[in-house]
């Protein structure tokens, strides 16, 4: 009986301590296309030659707080495909895939990582599907973009920022 009382007191003490900590909250509220564009400036002549694509891909992510605990994250994917021999543009497809995330109890570096890597990883499959759909509707074969590791992109960006922050300090000490 004494052990039961000690266990319940420990559990109550733990519960009281947990109430003091901010409650972790992460929920995807909505996924939506913020902007979409497809251009095939050399149609229909581009279809009269064998399709020999050279793909240029550009990725960018942004985030902003839009309300209390509410963040919008946008993954921008731009695919420019040119004819590998002629250099003429076959098509340009651009999608800004966005998501609205409710995030609470996460702050500082952890919040920055969540917005810069975790959320884009969730949104990219939707952007990839949207790009493929656009390209297919434009009369071209789907691009079938490979998965992207936003964790690695985020780590590279943080490393660059760290190196750039150190460079001015190094110059003044010499």
TrEMBL record:
<comment type="function">
    <text>One of the proteins required for the normal export of preproteins out of the cell cytoplasm. It is a molecular chaperone that binds to a subset of precursor proteins, maintaining them in a translocation-competent state. It also specifically binds to its receptor SecA.</text>
</comment>
<feature type="region of interest" description="Disordered">
    <location>
        <begin position="1"/>
        <end position="20"/>
    </location>
</feature>
<keyword id="KW-0653">Protein transport</keyword>
<dbReference type="GO" id="GO:0051262">
    <property type="term" value="P:protein tetramerization"/>
</dbReference>
<dbReference type="GO" id="GO:0005737">
    <property type="term" value="C:cytoplasm"/>
</dbReference>
<dbReference type="GO" id="GO:0051082">
    <property type="term" value="F:unfolded protein binding"/>
</dbReference>
<comment type="similarity">
    <text>Belongs to the SecB family.</text>
</comment>
<feature type="compositionally biased region" description="Low complexity">
    <location>
        <begin position="1"/>
        <end position="17"/>
    </location>
</feature>
<dbReference type="GO" id="GO:0006457">
    <property type="term" value="P:protein folding"/>
</dbReference>
<keyword id="KW-0811">Translocation</keyword>
<keyword id="KW-0963">Cytoplasm</keyword>
<dbReference type="GO" id="GO:0015031">
    <property type="term" value="P:protein transport"/>
</dbReference>
<keyword id="KW-0143">Chaperone</keyword>
<comment type="subunit">
    <text>Homotetramer, a dimer of dimers. One homotetramer interacts with 1 SecA dimer.</text>
</comment>
<dbReference type="Pfam" id="PF02556">
    <property type="entry name" value="SecB"/>
</dbReference>
<protein>
    <recommendedName>
        <fullName>Protein-export protein SecB</fullName>
    </recommendedName>
</protein>
<dbReference type="InterPro" id="IPR035958">
    <property type="entry name" value="SecB-like_sf"/>
</dbReference>
<dbReference type="InterPro" id="IPR003708">
    <property type="entry name" value="SecB"/>
</dbReference>
<keyword id="KW-0813">Transport</keyword>
């Amino acid at each position: 009986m004494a052990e039961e009382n000690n266990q319940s007191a420990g559990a109550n003490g733990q519960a009281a301590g947990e109430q003091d900590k901010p409650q972790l909250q992460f929920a995807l509220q909505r996924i939506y296309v913020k902007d979409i564009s497809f251009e095939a400036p050399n149609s229909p002549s581009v279809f009269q030659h064998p399709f020999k694509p050279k793909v240029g891909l550009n990725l960018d992510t942004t985030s902003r707080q839009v309300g209390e605990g509410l963040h919008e994250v946008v993954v921008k994917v731009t695919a420019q495909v040119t004819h590998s021999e002629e250099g003429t543009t076959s098509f340009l497809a651009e999608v800004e895939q966005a998501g609205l995330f409710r995030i609470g109890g996460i702050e500082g570096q952890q919040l920055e990582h969540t917005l810069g890597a975790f959320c884009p990883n969730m949104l990219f499959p939707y952007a990839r599907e949207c790009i493929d759909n656009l390209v297919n509707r434009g009369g071209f074969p789907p691009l079938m973009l490979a998965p992207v590791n936003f964790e690695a992109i985020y780590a590279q960006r943080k490393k660059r920022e760290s190196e750039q922050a150190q460079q001015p300090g190094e110059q003044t000490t010499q």
